[in-house]
Amino acid sequence: MKILIAATHIPALGKKGFQSVAYSRINFLINKGYKVNLVCYGDHSKESDLADLILLEKLGVKVTLIKYKKLSAIANIFIALFNNTPFQCAIYISKEFKNIFEKQIKLIRPDFVYCIMARVAINLSYETYPLVIDLVDSLSLNFDRRVKNSSGIKKFFLQQELLRISKFERH
Prior knowledge:
Blueprint: E1 2-7, H1 17-31, E2 35-41, H2 47-59, E3 62-66, H3 70-80, H4 87-90, H5 95-108, E4 112-116, E5 131-134, H6 139-148, H7 152-170
Parallel strand pairs: 1-2, 1-4, 2-3, 4-5
Helix pairs in contact: 6-7
């Protein structure tokens, strides 16, 4: 069985929690005999990304890295002010990611797509393949907790993001 994975960061042990969880899940899939291809943000020129890439490739994962563009993220946040896109997702919107991912779909013809976290799912076309979105950390639950513990203008902006992300996660 072939799986194509989309992620915001390179899955790796000893990194952020979701990266470690994703690495463990990928390792499990490989050990069960699945063919795994991964598309994620990363940079070949960063030593840590390159080291994580090499470890995944040693497992048998075929990895495609896409360089994260901070200026595009800032522009996407500005655009998100005028639509209902959650800011948590807007920072990962990328035409390059969408195009590369769709090319991988056509090339690999995966049995299903596995998306690590909702943030990057905004780049995927849901209707063309079976899709599993792993809500490693439910953003809506996270923002709900942060709203309850905040006040003033910060609370207002967190409430706005909570509304956006809750709607996105339900979709």
